[in-house]
Amino acid sequence: MPTALPVPIEFRLPEGWLPARGDVDPGVAFAAVHPHPDSGFAANITIDGGFPPEEASLVELADESAERLRQVAGSVRLVHRREAGTADSPALTQRLTFSAVAGGVARDLVQSQVYLALVDTADPHRRAVLRLALTATAAQHDGVLPDFQEFVRSVRPDTGEGA
């Protein structure tokens, strides 16, 4: 069963992407898959998040994420990291490459992660952090990255006002 996000958000999936069915990591609040797998591996977008300790920086959270990945995958390498956003709404992007067994096959994978810090509307003194991640084969990553970027641009707090 998926976990709940710390703050409500709204987003648009890129054209053709489908909500994931079946086994989704219990720490993930939402997952979607690309309709055209690469050699049996479907690129996927996931969303998770929480309320980290107030003193935790986005860099520290990104480092922890890479370390968790190292516990289940081989040869995790940080190939890119950039801080972005504003002082009120900081963000961080990072790209990791790693090898993992998926579907019984060893694969070279790439994971692009975006960390977004949002103020909790119920308690403005608390900061929620969302992690948006794209995982794809090394061969497919650059082809689906524009879809992920479109998805990230669509993510915003859900104010409940609806369109």
How would you describe this protein?
- The protein is an alpha+beta fold and 163 residues long.
- The protein has one domain (9-157): Mog1/PsbP, alpha/beta/alpha sandwich (Protein Transport Mog1p, Chain A, 3-Layer(aba) Sandwich), CATH 3.40.1000.10.
- Helices cover 18% and strands 42% of the residues.
- It has 2 helices and 9 strands.
- It has helices at 58-70, 138-154, and strands spanning 9-10, 18-19, 30-33, 44-50, 74-85, 90-102, 105-119, 127-137, 156-157.
- Strands 2-3-4-8-7-6-5 form a 7-stranded antiparallel β-sheet, sandwiched between helices. A two-stranded antiparallel ribbon has the order 1-9.
- A hairpin with a 4-residue loop joins strand 5 (74-85) and strand 6.
- The longest helix has 17 residues, at 138-154.
Features:
163 residues; alpha+beta; seven-stranded antiparallel β-sheet; two-stranded antiparallel ribbon; 9 strands
Write the CATH architecture name: 3-Layer(aba) Sandwich
Q: How many domains would you count in the coordinates?
A: 1
Number of strands: 9
Integer average pLDDT: 90
Shape type: globular
Question: Would you tell me the structural class of the helices and strands?
Answer: alpha+beta
Quote the beta fraction. 35-45%
Secondary-structure element sequence?
A: EEEEHEEEEHE
Question: In brief, what are we looking at here?
Answer:
With 163 residues, the chain is of the alpha+beta class. 18% of the residues lie in helices and 42% in strands.
